[in-house]
Every structure is written in C-alpha cells, then in structure tokens.
Design a protein that fits this description.
Layout: H1 2-8, H2 10-38, E1 42-46, E2 53-54, E3 57-63, E4 66-70, E5 75-76, E6 90-95, H3 98-103, E7 104-108, E8 115-116, E9 135-136, E10 141-145, E11 156-160, E12 165-166, E13 172-173, E14 187-191, E15 197-198, E16 220-224, E17 227-229, E18 242-246, E19 248-249, E20 252-253, E21 260-265, H4 273-280, E22 292-297, E23 300-308, E24 313-321, E25 334-339, E26 346-347, E27 357-358, E28 368-374, E29 377-379, E30 392-398, E31 403-414, E32 420-432, E33 451-456, E34 463-464, E35 485-489, E36 492-494, E37 510-514, E38 523-527, H5 537-546, E39 556-560, E40 563-567, E41 571-573, E42 587-591, E43 599-600, E44 622-626, E45 629-631, E46 645-649, E47 659-663, H6 674-679, E48 688-693, E49 696-700, E50 705-706, H7 708-714, E51 722-727, E52 751-755, E53 777-781, E54 788-792, E55 799-800, E56 821-832, E57 838-839, E58 849-856, E59 863-864, E60 878-890, E61 907-916, E62 921-925, E63 932-933, E64 943-948, E65 951-955, E66 964-965, E67 979-984, E68 991-992, E69 1010-1014, E70 1017-1019, E71 1031-1035, E72 1045-1049, E73 1064-1069, ...
Helix pairs in contact: 1-2
Length: 1441
C-alpha cells in the first residue's frame, strides 16, 4: 500500500521518506546501546514462591516476583535481561481445600530423651539432663489421613466411541458422505465408576418382642452396617443398610412362650332407657320417669392369664392389657334390658257401711263402737315411693252389737176360732255380724224373741198386705242440711163388710225411720312411707350371736313409719277416734342391703414411650395408664377412686441427632486429554463440555466432622458431587464471571440480579450481542423457604367430630360417636421444595392435610304425634273397646325408619278392651200406689183396678250413691213396669196375698221341671165362692224364664306398656264378663253368686321388641402412618359393634367397603370327650397350650378397591421379541418386547391419581418380523366384531393400522331417515311391519305408508308391537320381496283387489242362501235339542280371524 500511495501522491512520498530515515537512525542507536549493556552482565533474580491461591485442589496457582539486576547488585529494567532466561513467575500448585483439613491430621510421636543444648560449634549429642540445665527433646511429626471416607475425591476420566457412516441398506460408507450431518461426539468426560463400600454387619439387636406368639406376631431382630464410600459414576449402588429377621434360628424359638390372655367384664351398669330413646327421639329425654326397654353397658377388658407349671391351675393378673392381645371375640359390652314401669296402686270401690261393732267382742262392757267400710287392692304398686291409699274407714257409733238374734216367723195361730187375734211362733238363731251362726250363749245378754202377736182377718174384716222392705236410704250420711231416711208401706187388699173391722187410715199404711244417721265425716289411719332399712341394736346383737360361722351375711334390720288418725274433713286427730284393731304397723323387719365396695382393676402398664428418636423441637411425648371400675359402690360401701387415668411425660426420650451435608467449591472443568482429543475425529480445540467435581463432607450439629453414613441416615441424600461444565471455544462468546447477586429484602416476593459482560473478541461479534441468546443480566426470585403442595391420593371418608389434624396421634376419640351431620374429610398433601424434592408435609401445612367440610346426611325417621287420650269405653255394660290414636307429623327421609301402616287420614290407632260394670246405674222403684177402681162402673169400689209407681235411674257410684241420673244411663231393656192391674177384693170375698217370688229354675234348664209361685189366703170367703188359685206353675224354658250364665273372655289385647315406655316388658289382658244364655251381658255378680269357675288367666306378660340402632364403640386412636417416608401412606382407626341392630333399627356399617383390610376367623379352645353324641365345650384358651403353627392364622390380609382410587393390575407376561420391519425386512439387530398392565379406576378423572406406567419395554435379541391384519366376523343385525391378528395367529390389541380398520356397524346409504323406516340386512332401507314401502323413481325408499284396515284393529297386539319395535327378522326380509302388494306406487288400489273383493262377496251370499235352505228343510222333524254347553271363543289377536 505504501507503493501505491507513493505513485499516487509525490508529496506524501517525500514526507514518508523523512519519517523512515528518522526511524532508522533511532534503531541504530538502540542497537549500539544493547551491545554496551550486554557487556555489563545483567541477570534475572527471583523471589520466594507465594502461597497457593485460586481454586482448591490441583487447580491452584502460586506466584513469585522476578526482576532484572546488574552484576553489581542494582536493579534495572527487565528489558536489560535476556528474556529467554527469565524464570517463570507462576506455576500450578495443589491448594489444600477446607475439607482436606477435615480429612487429615498431624500425627506426632512421643517426645524423645532430653538432650543438652550443644555448645557453639559442637554437635548435638544425647545425654542425661541435669537439674537446672536446658536441654532439647525431639519427636516425629507427619501428616496422616484421619481414616474417614474421602467424600470429595471423585476421579474424572474420559470415554470414546467410534462413528461410521451407514448407507440405507446397512453398508458402511465414507465419512465424507455423512458430512452434511453434524458429526457426533466421539469423546466425552466421565466419572470413573466406583462401587459403594460398606462396613461389616453390626451384631444382631435384641428381639423386638420379649415373648413368642408363634406365627401370629413374630418378633424381629435387626442389624445395621454403615457406608464407607458411596457409589460413583456407574458403580454399584449401596445395598440395604438394615436387615431384619424373625427371632428364630433353624426353626427353634429363641423366646419363651407368651402368657395367654382372656376377656373379662365388669358388672352390668344400671339399665338406661335414655340410651335407647336417644336413638329414637332425643326430645323424649325430657320426660321424667322413663321406663321400659333400655340399654345397659359394661366394661370389657383383656387380662393376662397363665398356667401355673405343674398345678394345671389358671393364675390371673387383673391388670388390663391391650385388647389386641385377646384373640377370641370380645364379649358384648351392651345388651337390652327392661326397667319396670311404675304402676300406681289401684283399689276397688268402697263397700257398704257395716253395722256398729265394738273394737273387741270379748269386751261386753264397751258402749262405744265403730261402723266400718273397706276396699281391696286390685293392682299392687310397683316402683313408686307412694304406697296404696288407706283401705279402711270408720265412723264412731253407740251401742255396738257383736251378736244378735235372727228370727224367722211361723204361721199365725188364732187364740179362738179360725180368725181373730193370735200369735206367731218365732224361731231365733244367734248370728254374728258376718251372718254366721254362733252358739246361743253369745246372745244370752239379749232378750230372745219367741212369740209375736198376729191377727187372722175374719170374713168381714179389712185385709192389709205385709209391710214392704225398707226403701234405700236417701242419704249415705247425716249432716245439718240433710238426714237419711227410709220408708216402707203396705196396702189394702180387701175392703171390710158391714160390721167388720175397718181399714186403717192412709197414714197408717206407711212408716218412716231415720237411717245413716252417722255424721258425714269418717276417720282412717294414715301412714307415712317406710323409712330405709337400718340397723337395730337388738337385731344386730342377735345377728352377731347367730353368725358364728363367719359367713358374710348382711343381717336383718328394721323399717319404721309414722301412723296417725286422720279425720276426713279436718286432718289429724287423736288416735282414739280410729279403731285400734285396724291400725297399720309402725315397725317391720327388713333385710339390710349388703354394702358393696367399689372394685377397680390395677393400673395398666404405662404405654410405651417411643423408641425411635424424636426431633429436638418436638413437643414432649406422654405416656398414660388407666384402670377400670369392675363394681360400683352401693349401700354405703367404699367409694370409687377419683383417678382412673394417669398421664406423665416420657423420660429419656432419645433426641434425633442433627447432621448436615457441607459442599465445597467446584474444581476446574476437566476435559478429555489433548492426546486423546487429537487422535479422534471431532473437535481438536481444548474446549467444550467437561465435568467438574466438588467435595461433600458430613458435619455434626457442632460442626465436627462425621461419618458419611450418619448424613445418609439423618440428612438425606448426598448432594451431587459431579456436574457438567463448559470451557468456551475460541469461536464461542466469552464472558466475565457472573457478579454477585444483588442484596435481597426480607420479602419472599423480591428478586435479585447479577451481571456479566463480554470479554475479548466477543465484544465485537454480533451474535454475542444478542441478549436473548446470551443474556448479560440474570434475574431470579430471592432464595426463600418456598414450598409447594399438591394433593395426593383420594379424599378420606367424612370424619365426624374432630378432624385428624386436631387429634393427637395415639389418642382415642372419646364421647358419643356421631353417625351423621357435619364433619371434615381429609386429603394428604405432598409437599415439595423449590427443587421438586419431597419434604415433610409440615412445611406446607400445619396438619399435613387439606381439610374440607362435608356432610353425612342424617336419616330422619317417621315422626308421629303423642298418643291422644283414650276414648270412653264403647259399652256401658260389660266388655267394650276404647281407642286412642297418633297422627303423622313428619315423613321419613334419608333412609329413616318407615312409618307404620297409616289410614287415609294419616293416623294409626290402638284399641284395647275395656270393661264397664253393669250395675253402675240401676232402676229404683217406689211403692205401688193404692189400687184405683173405676168408681163410675163399680158402686162398691172394689174389684179390678190399676195401680202405678214411680221408677227412676240412680247412680251406684261411691260419691254419688242414690242420686237420680238421666234415665238413658240405665238399661232400657230392663226398665221396671210403672203400671199394673190390681184387685181390691169386695167385702165377704176370699182375699189372698200378692204372689210371692217364682221359685228358681235349676242351673240346667229343663222344661220338665216347673217353676212355681204361691200366695196365701188372708181372708176366707163368706159365701160359697171359692178362693182364687194359690199356686202357679210354668216350665223352665231356656231364655224365657230360665237363663244360664257363663264367664266369657274377650280376646287378648295388644301388649300394653307403661305410659313412659316405648318398648320392653308389658302386659296383655283379656276381660272377664258374665254372659247370659240369650247373649246379654250382665253383672259379673250373677256369675259369682252361682259359684261358676273363673278362667285362670286374664293377664299375661309380653314384650314389645325395641327398635335398636346399631351401637358402636368410640373410634380407636389413629394408627401410625403405614409408610415412614414418601407418599402412599395410610392411617387407620377402628371401632367395634357393641350392640347389633334389632327390631328394624339402622344396621351396623358393614366394615370398610373398600381398601386394605383383614379376613378374620375365630379360634376357640374346646374340650371333647370323643363320644359321637357329645358336643364340644369351650374352655379357657390357656388350656390348649401353644397355637398350631400354620393352620391357625387368624388374620389374612385382603384388599377391596375404593371408589376414586387408582389400582394397577399385575403385569402381563412379556410379549415375544419383535423387530421393526418394512415390507418384512428388518433394519436392526436388537428387537423389543413389551408388557402392560391396566389402570382400574371408576372415573376417568381419577386417572390423574395413578402413579406408575401402564406399559414398559425392554430390548431383546432374536426377534422376528410380523405382519398385522384386521379380521372381521359375519354381520349380525348390522353389527360385526373387528379385531387385529398377528401373522402367527395371535390376536393382539395393537399393530394394525387404525385408518384401515373395517366398520363394526353397517349403515344404509343414504341413511334411513323416513318415518317408520329402518336399515335392513341387505343395506337398503325398508319399512316396519304394518307399513308398505313406496319407492321413488331412483329406486330408493320414498316413504312408508300404513297398510289400510289395520288402524281399526285395536286388539291387534302384534301390529301394535310392530309399531314400537323394528322387526329385523330375516324371514321378514325374505318374504317382503314377493309379498302381495295391494297398492300401486301412486297409492291407488290394484285391479286384482277389486276382483278378489267381488268374488268374496258372491261367495258370502251363496253361503247365506245355502244355510237358509238347509235350516228351513229340517225344521219340521226337529225335536227338542239337548241343552248345549256354552261355547267360549278365544281371540289370539291375529288379523286373519
């Protein structure tokens, strides 16, 4: 270029020559100066090497100062020294890393003998040290390894491979032909493989169990080994570091057999009706006095029993143990019971007041007595403190009489003649107040009546009847306002003749007297309730003297009560007002209730403290123990202790050691050596990808060096010690190292950044300026303890009450177990850190679960109202029915118990028999009026007439006795006559008395037996006219004048419960009535008077079954997680059935419907005497000795898939080896074989929860080429089966081309869219049965037309069916082509149809005419035909009929 410039510009050429000349002169002077310097001897001087800096390991550098000096010692410019002789100022060195300090230590020997310090110029010699002289001691010092595993030493090597260019036919070709493709790498750095090294096994640990249970729960022992060096590269990974085995060697047990265990129970607690009613309706708990069916519970616990050696006797330890140790089924902890319903004392009505009696009939001097009435106890009281009311009432009276003369009158004997005054002999008998005959001397203090004056009317005298009985007393007692009175009357039977004895005046025909003149107050003894049974001094002494044998008897005590006399109107009065003879007792003996002390078991053993170590920040672990009440205290016995459960913190709980990995700086990037790289095709430049390593050491909590095994066990996986690195090539973009990240704030949302810049030639390259490809600023989120969570697994069941997160592990759930309502369901959380590594769930959630509220719908049972009041008894006399009802309040839903059968008004009824006394109301008659003669027709005022009387209905009730009530309450069929004919005998006529009572017919009515009644002649006739008859007779005819009686029983009533009972023990009753032979119900007193035998049983006990829902125990504590780390773990809890469902109650849940579970069978120890007929008898399990080895497995694991869970089937067999082929030709020597398994899920969305692969493959050798073809079955109803078949005849699920798959369903083209059309087997559209095809000119179906005449056949079942369902039978298609078609395509009838119709009409006319001629011809000779049977025609629905 200089020459070109000189030719172009002479000015610039001369100017350049001047500059060149000056440069030449300068160079000549410098050369002369150098020659002079060389002559003065300049040399290089070097300082000491500095310390090794830079990357630790072999990548360190050390430097030193190098300068140029003159021979005289002064320093000059470096240029004065020969550059060829310049010493190096830097060299590589091995820099000791921090972790090297942890690997090595100084080893020092012991100090040698002390030697004197040598004098100047003399040698050191060993000699004895003298006191006060200084000497020297020496020792050897060397650096040695600490003997631990060198975790940081990773050897990096290289790998090479050959490459070749291959043609499409598999033959090799020149590499230049493949030059268009990037040349594959032929070398790379790698880690030298090194197997994991472990230590020897430690000794076996002690067995996990202290005794042997056979194969059921074997004990285990374990041993461990530690890692000496971890695997590197492709080296063999570390084997298992822990080994477990059963505690037996060679089949010989190393443990003693465990003791046996058996179930024990406490006594049953009191029957609680509330536990049962709470299942039905909790609102009923408000009612007091609950009774009937209930539930009683008891404690069930497991105890240890052992067989004393040589004694064959069981020894029991009462301390409760874990129930899992008792293998037999646990006894029931609940049972149904019955709490007797309290029944109130029921008493009869009061009897009539008795006569005035003295307190003691032996004391004849008392002038004061009592009239008494009484009532009886009908139903004894049960379960009530209140006893029966008083049963006796008394009224003080004067002149009491114990005995009296009872007289019977004889005939009246006249003193003179046949009429006139006379006397009547009396027969007297001494009787007591009960009507029983007693010796005569008891009545000796009373005058004995013997003769009674009387008079026989003469023929002309007036005749008067006998006195009637005294009427009923008008009042039951006397008061200031009312006094009781009663009357009797007699009537004139015959009028006197002239000169005869006249009739008495009217007032003499009636008599009145006072009755029930006692005051309306009465007295009775009242008693307080009995006191509790208490000890009595005398009785206790007697018990002590009798109980010499020392037996534990409870003895006899006394009960007392207060007894006082009560006046009905004013309260308590002096005891003298009440009869002493009926005073209730105030003291009675009783059995002292035995004192029952509270019995409790011993405390159970403390629950085990965890043997595994606990984290240092974990809360204190507690252990607990408990004891169980076997018997509650009663009757003043020793009370139960307050403490049944104790808790304490575990002592000496091991704390988990803390170890951590410490990582050191990465080494420099190690590439493939230059010699290797140069000899292989590819990159020759020392750049590209390589490997770099770093040291990883283990540190303890106090930053001391620790074994790698400890970190592997406690700190997790070892961090990576090798990573890829990149050495940039000359064409690569080079950068400065990244700067440090900017500072972060405390907020996790903040970011930090770092920078780098281009270096060297990269700054001028355009490609390096692209910041998207080569970023120079890098921004990232600030490092923060960020964790992400993902739900894992399925939702748990809805857990009622407290969630798992709120329950401490190992604590059971207490309180009543809810079965429905609000709860939570849980889902496990898989917690990951930023790197995607699984960490403790507590980092993401305090509980480790996602909680979601859920609801288990509560079943609501049918709700009925309370019972209404009982209706009145349907009968006023005898047995009837009374009814009560309930009505529907709420219908059942959510699976509640259904309602009983309801009527149209949504009511349910209950009817029970009732009985009404027939004599509650009775007819009372007043005396007959005098005989009224019709005086207009009879001047003598005698002869026949009419007399009347009043009849009223009165109540016989105690408090309303004698009161007149409406006549409708009395039996209208038995109303007495109010009018009758009468006779008033005329003077001088024979006069007779009224008829007496008819004699009784026998109990068995017999018409041959006569019933008679008589009357007496009171006055003889003065004329010859005879007296009327004095005797009448009539036969005893059944149901006319003779009746038979019998007791009649109603049917049994339903089971009647107490008012406050819902179920349990009750009583059913049947009522007793007296029935007359004509069917009428009469008073039971008639049957009682006849002495008829009563039926034995009128009531019996019964039971109404209780509707009991399944009763479950409380949930146990949650089990430990089934996995110690990772995902897929489960926790379980269980509960047991305490009382099975009964009476239609809600059943028990059938265990887990899905998931992992156990199949359980029972094993019972029995004794058998080996006879054929004898049955085996269960005995204590300890008597059977050891369990059999293999046959006695009582639990077998099982699994049932859960909804929503993902389950994988077992792997299929490996397929045959197959090559990838094209047209039967393979291009590879190694084949593949595969196997698969299926995901079992209930919903497609559950596929996401499946972990694991559904198919896996592996390489194989010796494969074959296969062809795949689609195969089809024959068409059937336009459907066929299509499958893929391999060339070896095996049916497979893949391999055939999906696009070539034949159709599985045949469709007509065009589609059959016309109404009533369908696709036939021939692939064309046809019409359903009952329709005919109308074709278009193109040959396709135009429409389907209904065959005429079929629409009126409503009974055509077959045609109707054809409408609804296409007929796809082959026969239909076969005959459809040649079936008779009566219509043209245009819808008009064909000509032959008209011809057929005309011919059919002529045939019908001919048949009618022929039939007419035949019938007419045979009619003359026709006889009466026999009776024809009716003919029944059946129509099968065919249109041909």
């Amino acid at each position: 270029m200089l020459l070109q410039q000189n030719w172009v510009s002479p000015h610039w050429a001369w100017h350049s020559l001047g500059k060149s000349f000056l440069l030449f002169v300068f160079l000549m002077l410098q050369t002369a100066d150098l020659e002079a310097r060389r002559g003065h001897q300049f040399v290089w001087k070097a300082g000491p090497w500095g310390r090794c800096v830079g990357d630790c390991g072999s990548g360190g550098l050390r430097s030193r100062a190098v300068w140029c000096t003159h021979a005289e010692g002064w320093t000059t410019y470096p240029a004065n020294c020969d550059q060829k002789d310049k010493p190096e100022s830097q060299r590589r060195c091995f820099k000791v890393c921090d972790w090297h300090l942890e690997l090595f230590e100084w080893e020092v020997s012991g100090w040698e003998r002390c030697g004197l310090v040598p004098a100047a110029g003399t040698e050191l010699r060993a000699g004895p040290c003298v006191t006060a002289q200084h000497g020297l001691q020496r020792r050897a010092v060397r650096c040695r390894s600490k003997g631990q595993q060198r975790a940081g030493e990773v050897e990096i090597g290289y790998q090479t491979r050959q490459i070749r260019c291959v043609r499409s036919d598999g033959k090799n070709a020149a590499l230049s032909l493949c030059i268009q493709d990037p040349v594959p790498l032929t070398f790379k750095s790698c880690v030298i493989a090194k197997d994991c090294e472990t230590s020897e096994w430690s000794p076996w640990s002690t067995c996990s169990q202290t005794c042997a249970w056979g194969d059921l729960t074997p004990g285990f022992r374990s041993r461990r080994r530690s890692v000496r060096s971890v695997a590197e590269g492709a080296g063999k990974q570390c084997p298992e570091l822990e080994e477990r085995e059963a505690c037996s060697v060679g089949g010989k047990e190393l443990l003693q057999p465990c003791p046996r265990f058996a179930w024990r129970t406490s006594e049953w607690k009191a029957c609680q009706v509330s536990l049962l009613l709470d299942q039905l309706d909790p609102r009923q708990l408000k009612h007091a006095g609950l009774c009937g069916g209930g539930i009683q519970t008891r404690e069930v616990y497991c105890v240890q029993i052992s067989l004393e050696p040589g004694m064959h006797r069981l020894k029991e330890v009462t301390r409760p143990v874990d129930g899992k140790l008792c293998l037999s089924p646990a006894p029931s902890a609940s049972q149904l019971c019955n709490l007797p319903c309290p029944s109130v004392c029921a008493v009869s009505v009061w009897s009539l007041w008795g006569p005035c009696l003295p307190e003691n009939c032996q004391d004849h001097h008392g002038r004061r007595g009592f009239r008494m009435r009484q009532r009886q106890v009908i139903v004894d009281p049960v379960g009530t403190l209140a006893g029966c009311p008083h049963l006796f009432e008394s009224i003080p009276c004067e002149d009491p009489v114990c005995y009296e003369w009872i007289t019977s009158e004889g005939m009246c004997v006249t003193h003179h003649g046949k009429c006139g005054p006379g006397s009547r002999m009396l027969k007297a008998v001494c009787k007591d107040q009960k009507g029983e005959e007693v010796p005569h001397y008891l009545c000796s203090h009373l005058p004995r009546p013997e003769i009674l004056a009387c008079e026989v009317p003469c023929a002309t005298d007036c005749v008067i009847s006998e006195w009637s009985p005294w009427s009923q007393c008008s009042h039951s007692c006397s008061s200031k306002n009312a006094e009781g009175s009663q009357s009797r009357s007699r009537s004139i039977l015959a009028l006197p003749a002239e000169g005869g004895k006249a009739c008495p005046p009217d007032r003499a025909l009636q008599e009145h007297r006072a009755c029930n003149n006692h005051p309306c107050v009465h007295f009775f003894w009242e008693a307080s309730p009995w006191s509790s049974c208490s000890e009595d001094v005398l009785v206790t002494a007697l018990n002590a003297s009798v109980n010499w044998s020392g037996e534990n008897t409870c003895g006899v005590g006394i009960q007392t009560r207060k007894v006082f006399c009560v006046k009905s109107s004013s309260g308590q009065v002096t005891p003298k007002r009440c009869p002493e003879s009926i005073k209730p007792e105030a003291v009675r003996p009783c059995l002292l209730p035995c004192k029952k002390d509270c019995l409790v078991t011993s405390f159970s053993e403390w629950t085990r403290c965890p043997t595994a170590c606990q984290p240092g920040n974990a809360s204190a672990v507690k252990q607990s123990r408990y004891r169980i009440i076997i018997q509650e205290a009663a009757n003043g016995g020793q009370a139960c202790p307050d403490t049944l459960y104790e808790e304490r913190e575990c002592e000496d709980t091991p704390i988990c050691p803390v170890y951590r990995w410490k990582t050191h700086r990465w080494s420099h990037c190690v590439l493939v050596p230059d010699l290797v790289r140069q000899a292989l095709p590819g990159h020759s430049e020392a750049c590209g990808h390589g490997l770099q390593s770093r040291a990883v050491t283990c540190l303890s909590e106090h930053n001391d060096s620790a074994s790698v095994s400890d970190c592997i066990r406690w700190a997790g996986a070892m961090p990576a010690r090798v990573q890829e690195c990149l050495v940039p090539c000359k064409d690569d973009c080079t950068f400065t190292p990244w700067s440090k990240f900017t500072a972060c704030s405390s907020d996790c949302e903040s970011t930090r950044s770092r920078r780098r810049s281009l270096t060297g030639r990269s700054r001028k390259r355009d490609k390096c300026q692209n910041t998207e490809v080569y970023p120079q600023v890098e921004t990232e989120q600030c490092p923060c303890e960020e964790f992400t969570s993902q739900p894992h697994g399925n939702w748990s069941d809805c857990i009622l009450g407290r969630g798992t997160s709120e329950q401490q592990l190992g604590m059971p759930s207490h309180g009543g177990a809810k079965e429905c309502g609000e709860g939570v369901r849980l889902r496990a959380i898989a917690c990951y850190d930023k790197s995607g590594r699984l960490v403790e769930p507590s980092h993401c959630s305090s509980s480790g679960y996602i909680e979601e509220s859920c609801t288990v719908p509560c079943p609501f049972d049918c709700k009925l109202s309370d019972w209404s009041s009982w209706s009145p008894c349907s009968s006023s006399c005898g047995p009837g029915v009374k009814v009560r009802s309930k009505w529907l309040k709420e219908k059942p839903y959510n699976g509640g118990r259904p309602c009983p059968k309801l009527d149209l008004k949504n009511q349910v009824y209950e009817a029970v028999p009732c009985y009404t006394e027939c004599n509650q109301y009775s007819w009372v008659v007043e005396p007959w009026s005098p005989c009224k003669i019709n005086s207009e027709q009879n001047s003598l005022h005698c002869g026949e007439g009419i007399q009347t009387r009043r009849v009223r209905c009165v109540s016989s009730a105690e408090d309303h006795g004698g009161e007149t009530v409406p006549s409708a309450l009395c039996n209208q069929a038995e109303i007495p006559d109010v009018m009758q004919k009468c006779s008033l005998y005329c003077p001088s006529e024979c006069a007779v008395s009224d008829w007496g009572q008819w004699s009784r017919c026998p109990q068995v009515c017999d018409p041959s037996i006569m019933q008679t009644r008589t009357r007496q002649v009171l006055r003889s006739s003065a004329s010859t006219k005879p007296c009327p008859e004095d005797t009448q007779m009539k036969p005893c005819i059944l149901n006319q004048n003779c009746f038979q009686y019998q007791y009649n029983l109603t049917g049994w009533s339903g089971c009647q419960l107490g008012a406050q009972a819902a179920c349990g023990h009750g009583e059913r009753r049947r009522l007793l009535s007296c029935q007359r032979s004509d069917g009428a119900t009469v008073s039971t007193q008639l049957c009682q008077r006849l002495g008829l035998e009563k039926p034995a049983q009128t009531s019996s006990s019964c039971e109404v079954g209780c509707t009991v829902d399944c009763r479950l125990s409380a949930w146990s504590a949650w089990s430990q997680c089934s996995h110690t780390c990772g995902t897929g773990g489960r926790m379980f809890r269980s509960r047991s059935v305490q009382l099975p469902a009964a009476g239609g109650g809600r059943p028990c849940p059938q265990g887990g419907q899905c998931g992992d579970g156990l199949q359980v069978r029972n094993l019972t120890c029995v004794v058998h005497d080996a006879s054929v007929s004898a049955a085996s008898k269960p005995v204590e399990d300890a008597l059977c000795g050891e369990l059999p080895s293999k046959e006695s497995v009582l639990q077998l694991p099982c699994s049932v898939p859960c909804p929503g869970d993902c389950h994988l089937t077992e792997w299929s067999e490996w397929s045959s080896c197959e090559l990838t082929c094209i047209n039967g030709r393979s291009f590879e020597t190694t084949g593949r074989q595969s196997r698969s398994r299926a995901f079992v899920v209930q919903a497609p969305e559950d596929q996401e929860s499946c972990s694991g692969q559904a198919m896996e493959t592996r390489p194989c050798s010796g494969g074959k080429c296969y062809n795949y073809l689609w195969k089809t079955s024959l068409w059937r109803d336009n459907i066929r089966t299509v499958w893929c078949q391999r060339s070896d005849g095996v049916n497979v699920t893949g391999g055939c081309a999906p696009g070539m798959k034949p159709a599985e369903v045949r469709h007509c083209s065009p589609a059959c869219t016309k109404p009533f059309s369908y696709c036939t087997q021939r692939g064309v559209c046809g019409c359903e049965r009952g329709y005919t095809e109308i074709m278009s000119s193109s040959g396709f179906l135009d429409y389907c037309m209904k065959v005429p005449g079929l629409e009126d056949k409503k009974a055509d079942v077959k045609t109707t069916a054809g409408k609804n369902k296409p007929v796809n039978s082959k026969m239909h298609d076969i005959f459809k082509g040649w079936s008779i078609q009566p219509f043209n395509p245009d819808g008009k009838l064909k000509l032959w149809v008209y011809g057929v119709s005309a011919g059919g009409f002529l045939i019908i006319v001919f048949l009618i005419f022929t039939s007419y001629l035949m019938c007419k011809k045979t009619k003359q000779h026709q006889s009466t035909p026999p009776q024809q049977k009716p003919l029944t025609l059946a129509y099968d629905g065919d249109i041909d009929m």
